[in-house]
Sequence to fold (151 residues):
Amino acid sequence: MYSLTYMSLTGLDVFDRTVHTTNRWLQELTGLLDGGSRHDAYVALRATLHALRDRLPIEETAELVEGDARETLPMIDDVFDVVFLDAANKQYEELFGLVRGKLEPGALVIADDVTLHADTLRAYAEARQADPTLLSTTVPLDRGLELSVVF
Fold:
C-alpha cells in the first residue's frame, strides 16, 4: 500500500500515486547512475519501460474478444483497467453504459474522435464531464480524445 505522506499534485489519487512512484524510481536510478543526472535516469527508465512494453506478448497483456461489442461486453464478467472507444459515434453512449459497471476506481476510458465529430459526440463528452463519479476532460490531440477516470 502507498503512503499518503506525499503532496497531491493532481487531486486524483491514482495519478498522484503514479507520479510519486515514478519520482521514487527516478531518484533511485539517479543514485545508481554514477554521476548521472535526473534526465539520464528518466531516459534510462523510459527506454527500459518501452523495451518491456515492446517485448511483452499481447496474450500476456490483453485479451482480444472479437465480435460486436454490444454483444460481447455483456458476456464479460471481468473488470477493465482501460477502455478505448472508437466505434460508430452514435454507439459511444451505449458502449459506455455497457462498460460502466465493469470499471473500478482508477480505470480509464478513452473516447476517440470527440472533436472531429463534435456535433455528435459533444453530448457524450458533456455527460462524462458532468458525472460526479468521473474526472473527465477533452484533450484536443489529433481528432480529440475524451479521457475519463473513475473515482
